[in-house]
Design the sequence.
């Protein structure tokens, strides 16, 4: 058991070292090596962004934005502070946060009529055990999260959907762990209230 | 009506299990074509002159302030006063040329 975790630890640091070497090589005049980093982390970036946006085209644009930003800021990357993967994850979350801010400006509470038939049916059913498809769940969640602040939206997504821990969220957002717990509690309360309101309006 | 806690957990769990948007096959090429126009060093080249200019401006301002303090402490006319006098002299010269 110990041996495995030890091997895991070494492989992680090797990966971080490999990334750092790649960055050094890009800055030394081999820009084509950036494609190695893109290939290595593109799925991870798409997975994170998919938690914040459903539209395929928008996710793609945001992912491009993440990598272009990473490229432009590559000189600021310091492998001694954090591994490339964490640095890129933070950048991805910032792009998602900016996207949420822009979306919030244009999108207030969505009308119930925008919910699909499947989502409406599920909400009206009395039975707790009735199955719920991912797309329908997403529609309901988007509806219930519409009046959450960008911070509440971000922290709730990171914690409840991405499955990140408070210290991880704290590291990425720069907020204190206590603040994260408070925001998360408030966001969950709003989510529940909005679900009750939604079910009541049907 | 469903139990709200259970319903929320069910919604979140379904969203967690949703497959992410699939990365397009040529995504890396798209990114590389976007970054091909510049290199991280170009960014330094555009960032640094502005930074240097800001430092140079701060240095000139600090030097001006220091000279003002030293000159006034030693009883010499200040740079600001000197500049004002010079400007006045220039304007009077121009006035003489324009209205002889």
Sequence:
């Amino acid at each position: 058991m110990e041996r495995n975790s030890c091997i895991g630890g070494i492989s992680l640091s090797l990966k971080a070292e490999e990334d750092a070497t790649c960055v050094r090589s890009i800055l030394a005049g081999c820009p084509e090596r950036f494609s190695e980093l893109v290939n290595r982390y593109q799925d991870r970036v798409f997975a994170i962004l998919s938690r914040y946006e459903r539209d395929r085209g928008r996710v793609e644009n945001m992912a491009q934005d993440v990598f272009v930003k990473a490229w432009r800021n590559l000189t600021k990357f310091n492998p001694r502070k954090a591994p490339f993967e964490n640095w890129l994850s933070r950048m991805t979350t910032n792009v998602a946060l900016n996207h949420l801010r822009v979306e919030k400006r244009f999108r207030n509470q969505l009308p119930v009529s925008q919910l699909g038939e499947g989502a409406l049916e599920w909400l009206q059913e009395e039975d707790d055990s009735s199955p719920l498809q991912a797309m329908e769940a997403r529609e309901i969640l988007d509806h219930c999260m519409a009046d959450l602040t960008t911070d509440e939206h971000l922290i709730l997504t990171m914690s409840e959907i991405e499955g990140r821990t408070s210290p991880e969220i704290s590291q990425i957002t720069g907020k204190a762990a206590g603040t994260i717990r408070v925001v998360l509690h408030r966001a969950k309360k709003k989510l529940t209230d909005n679900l009750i309101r939604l079910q009541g309006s049907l | 009506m469903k139990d709200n806690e259970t319903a929320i957990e069910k919604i979140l769990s379904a969203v967690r299990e949703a497959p992410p948007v699939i990365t397009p096959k040529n995504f890396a090429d798209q990114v590389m074509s976007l970054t091909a126009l510049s290199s991280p060093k170009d960014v330094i080249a555009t960032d640094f002159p502005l930074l240097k200019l800001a430092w140079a401006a701060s240095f000139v301002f600090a030097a001006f302030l220091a000279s003002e303090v030293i000159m006034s402490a030693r009883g010499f006319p200040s740079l600001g006063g000197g500049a004002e006098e010079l400007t006045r002299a220039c304007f009077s010269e121009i006035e003489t040329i324009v209205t002889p």
Notes: The CA atoms of residues 113 and 120 of chain A lie 9 Å apart. Residues 1-10 of chain A have pLDDT under 50 and may be disordered. Chain A touches chain B through 51 residues (CB under 8 Å). Residues 111-202 of chain A form a domain with the Arc Repressor Mutant, subunit A fold (CATH 1.10.10.10).
